[in-house]
Design goal:
Elements: H1 2-7, H2 10-17, E1 30-36, E2 41-49, E3 55-63, H3 66-79, H4 84-99, H5 111-114, H6 124-141, E4 146-148
Parallel strand pairs: 1-4
Antiparallel strand pairs: 1-2, 2-3
Bound molecules: zinc ion.
Zinc ion is lined by residues 36, 39, 41, 64-65, 67-68, 129.
């Protein structure tokens, strides 16, 4: 379990113990459930998108490991106030950061906040935990209700 100790940095622990936006907003306009059977993470992401395509509220419910919970907490914080396009773009850049060594461009951007999760790139199983909430967010925006890391 050394890999976990290495990944469970303070920021991750804080977010997983006190997740932000962990609730079910009654006025959500779309939602999607993300399932990562390899780890047992199950997260439902709720989004409220206005007429202009801006995500005005983002929240989640579910259970999972510290990585997935922390990632969901950070994701909901970050996409709030963004347009759908900007939210998807951030997901793409985060995914890249989790799967490649090219993290140089994160400095000074909002990706920097997510950098704490980028250690998962050395553990492919954990990449699925970190990206699950983002997959669910993206699925919700696309009008899908479910997404799984195993297809
Ligand atoms: Zn997990």
């Amino acid at each position: 379990m050394d890999e976990l100790r290495e990944l469970y940095q303070e920021v991750i622990l804080d977010h997983s113990r006190n997740p932000r936006n962990c609730r079910h907003p009654g006025d959500a306009t779309c939602q999607a459930r993300g399932d990562n059977p390899l780890c047992g993470d199950q997260i439902t992401v709720y989004l409220k998108v206005d007429d202009q395509g801006v995500v005005t509220d983002a929240a989640f419910e579910g259970r999972g490991c510290a990585i997935s919970m922390a990632s969901a907490s950070m994701m909901t914080d970050l996409v709030k106030g963004k347009t759908e396009a900007a939210a998807k773009d951030l997901f793409e850049r985060f995914h890249q950061m989790c799967t490649t060594d090219d993290a140089a461009s994160a400095e000074g951007t909002e990706l920097e906040k997510l950098q704490v999760l980028s250690g998962v790139r050395d553990y492919p199983m954990r990449v699925k935990c970190a990206t699950l909430p983002w997959h669910a967010m993206s699925a919700a925006l696309a009008g899908e209700e479910e997404v799984t890391t195993e297809k």
